[in-house]
Specification:
The protein is an alpha+beta fold. It contains five helices and 19 strands.
Length: 289
């Protein structure tokens, strides 16, 4: 039975922008194994399944699509992590309790000032962030610019807020919050995502750039921490196959379509699509009614 969205909860900040991130598609080797991981480990629901693909999500919104058939990557570029956004800190605590119960190994836990995040990888090495946002009014700023950091997240304090008896599944209202990419050059990433597609540069870290729509802290990030100088990915490589840019309304959709076409994009059956300098494919789609 599909989860029912809790309309009493405030709308997620990531979605209150002209553009946000929708379905992330991964090309995988072990489709049954990865489907089970995202269902039982991460807590998404299988929405559709075939011999060649699985769609998993919440509220009938597909967050992760897994496609069978992958070749060995030839480039260090691609996915750093996909980031699943939970509605509240209590939901993050519940998910942490679930991870502890099933002994799901975490790779990191950080307080980014604007958000709190847990990090892990799926069995094929695709990075995953599970996070919650602080209210926008609480985001620290300096000279009008959002401030972000990477500080230690107190896991014991977070775990103490978990609610007994909660389901292992992710709650209604969970959505894809952002996507973080491995790129070959941050200046080139800024030129493409900000210069060509119109996203706003929000924050620069050493070796990383964070871009967004509508004043969010970031919808798209790119770093060179392990991929400096990387060339483009080739079709069919394991890992990131595509991610959706969701347009809030018709005017936003047409504006982004024009930018994508000017950046070398094309029309496809699923909508306008364009590749960034490293072969990461973006697909433009309208928001669901």
């Amino acid at each position: 039975m599909a989860a029912v969205a809790d309309l009493s909860r405030p709308a997620l900040e990531a979605l209150q922008a002209p553009f946000h991130i929708g379905t992330v598609t991964l090309r995988v080797t072990d489709l049954p194994g990865l489907t089970a991981f995202y269902r039982d480990g991460i807590g998404l629901r299988v929405i559709a399944e075939s011999a060649d693909a699985s769609d998993l999500g919440i509220d009938d919104e597909v967050l992760v699509r897994l496609e069978r058939g992958a070749t060995r990557p030839t480039s260090a570029a691609g996915l750093f992590h996909l980031a699943i956004l939970l509605p509240s800190r209590a939901d993050l605590a519940d998910w942490l309790a679930h991870a502890a119960t099933i002994r799901l190994p975490l790779e990191g836990a950080s307080d980014h000032l604007v958000s709190e995040a847990l990090y892990l990888s799926d069995p094929e090495g695709n990075g995953i962030e599970i996070y919650r946002d602080r209210p926008r009014a609480d985001w620290p700023r300096r000279d009008g610019a959002i401030q972000m950091a990477t500080e230690r997240l107190d896991l014991q304090a977070l775990l103490a807020e978990a609610r007994p008896g909660r389901s292992a599944g992710m709650p209604a209202g969970t959505r894809m919050g952002h996507i973080h990419l491995r790129v070959g050059d941050t200046a080139a990433a800024e030129a493409f995502y900000a210069g060509a597609l119109g996203f706003e540069l929000m924050v620069r870290y050493p070796g990383a750039s964070f871009l967004a729509s509508g004043g969010y802290h970031h919808h798209i990030a790119g770093n060179v921490w392990n991929s400096r100088g990387a060339g483009p990915r080739q079709p069919g490589e394991a890992g990131l196959a595509a991610f959706e840019i969701v347009a809030r309304d018709r005017a936003d959709l047409e504006a982004m379509r024009g930018r994508m076409m000017a950046a070398g994009g094309r029309e496809a059956g699923s909508g306008a699509t364009v590749e960034d300098p490293w072969g990461n494919r973006l697909v433009l789609v309208p928001a669901r009614a």
